[in-house]
Write a structure and sequence with these properties.
Helix content: 10-25%
Shape: flat
Mean pLDDT: 81
Number of helices: 8
Structural class: alpha+beta
Strand content: 35-45%
Distance between the termini: 85 Å
Length: 587
């Protein structure tokens, strides 16, 4: 009898337990490294309302809330489960408490029990396998490949930014968040007309990659120099835990910020040993010096052109050309500088030149002395000096009627000017006057025209007043007209450049900045996106409109590195017209 009674009590208690509401918090681990992620699940066995998560103090929410529902029937019994999941990143080390979550089920308020977790120092191999953020970070890598980490001063190096994407995820969109500032370098971006996806490997595994940007740098200082990272915001599609009825996984979209990482290069100074006295900083390969004249036979006081040209591969825009020296009997004018330089993945290539205008002042054989030019050769890692040949000019006597002074200054040729015989022939000395008749003004046609004309303006004034009142009552029409005036005022240049990507986005960005200057009275140096958002919202602008304005600025920055279609440019222009009009009404 006792056994039967105990069994009956156990059955009653189990039935009571089954009917009770269960609401509890579970963590993926109670001890984790500061570089790991924590998953927190708030699970209930009955559906409820007004779920309220705790304040995740000392943590940053990097994912969630994700909601999962399980509803199954086994042997006629229903099993229900609903879970809210969050992914947390710790802000630092220590022992922390995850507070109570709340939910209302059948009119009653239920709370979870607080959970203690301990955050330790970073671990070597973080394990966050179920976190979409972690999956995205493990399968997406932005890499800065540097051609030479130990160059000489003024030697060209190349930085190539590659985005590696694992076949396990997909990238749907990306935009640039921050561009590196090469403060210690002379820099030049190389245009990439079209982004092409290629197959490769990353750390021994197969990956797809795309080259986003190529930049040529010439270090201007010696020692350890920092190359700032390129930072992107990328929309990543990550396979989730749910599947469709055919067994295919559903994908989740995660916004992931990736950076190429800081890179440090060690720049070597150019050697002091063997440095020529006329060295002006030229560094390169296969540089050639050429001095030419457009003529070698001429008359005194007649001009000729002499050109000093350096051609090859090197820092062509960053050094001075050697000067041209001439005898005292020849007049030399300031040179005209010309350059024909292309920047490729290997650095600057082409030629630079100074063109002098020379005027010999005396007859005879006039020599142009040789010109010497020194540079540091990167192939041999030594200094080389190039010297031109002497050029000998055959100068004949000056033309008749001109003379040159021995000191070399050309004097004007005196000419006889005939005196004028009749200097005042254009002044009339005899008058021709006509008398005006006694024509009466009163009663004339002009009198009546002037008298009646005010009466004719009265209907026009009445008509104009009616149209003005009707126009003032047309609120929608006034808004459209005001938007058109603003668009013409600020966006006229951008509209003219539709179809030319570079000019369009430059003029569009300039128009947006000019609008802010006029509206907020701030300078371009103050126009950070956070500052713009703060100022506009403080003056009553809608948050959505401010966000669209900042998106337009980001589009202008983004268009410098990626191609844009005519359709995209037209959309950005229409969006700019609308956003400027909305801001003008709100601010």
């Amino acid at each position: 009898m006792k056994h039967k009674l105990v069994l009956l009590v156990m059955l009653l208690l189990s039935g009571l337990a089954i009917g009770q509401v269960q609401f509890e918090a579970k963590v993926s681990k109670d001890r984790l490294g500061v570089n790991e992620r924590l998953r927190v699940d708030f699970e209930m066995n009955q559906d409820g309302d007004n779920f309220n998560p705790p304040e995740f103090t000392n943590f940053t929410v990097v994912g969630g809330p994700n909601q999962a529902v399980s509803n199954s029937w086994i042997n006629g019994k229903r099993t229900y489960s609903k879970t809210y999941s969050y992914f947390l990143a710790p802000k630092g080390r220590g022992k922390f408490t995850i507070g109570q979550a709340e939910i209302t089920i059948d009119g009653k308020l239920y709370k979870t029990t607080p959970v203690q977790v301990e955050v330790t120092a970073a671990v070597d191999q973080p394990t966050d396998g179920e976190n979409s953020e972690y999956v995205a970070s493990e399968n997406l890598h932005l890499v800065a490949e540097i051609s030479n980490t130990n160059p000489y001063l003024n030697e060209a190096i190349t930085v190539v930014y590659k985005l590696y994407v694992s076949p396990r995820i997909n990238v749907s969109d990306w935009r640039q968040l921050d561009s590196p500032k090469f403060s210690d370098f002379w820099s030049q971006n190389i245009d990439i007309r079209r982004l092409e996806v290629e197959n490769g490997t990353y750390e021994g595994e197969p990956y797809r990659f795309v080259v986003l940007r190529k930049t040529v740098l010439y270090p201007q200082k010696t020692g350890k120099l920092n190359i700032e990272p390129l930072t992107l915001n990328i929309s990543v599609e990550v396979p989730g835990n749910r599947r469709d009825i055919f067994g295919n996984r559903f994908y989740e979209t995660v916004d992931k910020v990736v950076a190429a990482g800081n890179r440090v290069i060690d720049v070597k100074p150019l050697p002091q040993e063997g440095r020529p006295g006329d060295f002006t900083g030229a560094v390169g390969k296969n540089l050639n010096l050429k001095v030419t004249t457009d003529k070698t036979e001429l008359r005194a006081t007649e001009s000729l052109q002499a050109t000093v040209e350096v051609r090859g591969q090197g820092n062509l825009k960053l050094f001075d050309l050697p000067p041209l020296t001439v005898p005292a009997s020849m007049e030399k004018y300031e040179p005209e500088y010309t350059e024909n330089v292309n920047t490729t993945i290997n650095g600057m290539q082409g030629s630079i030149a100074n063109q002098y205008t020379l005027v010999p002042q005396a007859k005879g054989k006039v020599p142009i002395p040789p010109v010497s030019f020194s540079y540091f050769d990167l192939d041999s890692r030594s200094y080389k000096t190039l010297t031109s040949q002497e050029i000998l000019l055959e100068v004949e006597a000056a033309p008749a009627g001109s003379r040159a002074t021995p000191g070399g200054n050309q004097s004007a040729v005196a000419q006889q000017v005939p005196a004028a015989t009749n200097q005042f022939r254009y002044i009339k000395l005899n008058t021709s006057l006509k008398t005006i008749g006694d024509t009466a003004f009163m009663g004339s046609a002009l009198f009546w025209t002037l008298f009646l004309s005010p009466l004719l303006f009265i209907p026009l004034v009445i008509l104009f007043g009616k149209r003005r009142r009707a126009k003032a009552g047309d609120v929608r029409g006034n808004q459209i007209r005001k938007a058109d005036r603003l668009a013409r005022k600020y966006l006229s240049e951008a509209k003219k450049n539709l179809g030319d990507q570079t000019k369009f986005y430059e003029s569009l960005e300039r128009a947006l900045h000019n609008y802010l200057k006029a509206k907020l009275h701030i300078q371009t140096s103050e126009m950070s996106k956070e500052r713009i958002k703060e100022l506009l919202e403080s003056r009553g602008a809608n948050a959505g409109t401010v966000a669209e304005f900042n998106e337009l600025l980001k589009s202008c920055e983004f268009a410098r590195y990626t191609p844009a279609s005519n359709v995209a440019m037209q959309q950005d222009y229409d969006k700019a017209v609308r956003v400027i009009s909305e801001l003008d009404k709100q601010v």
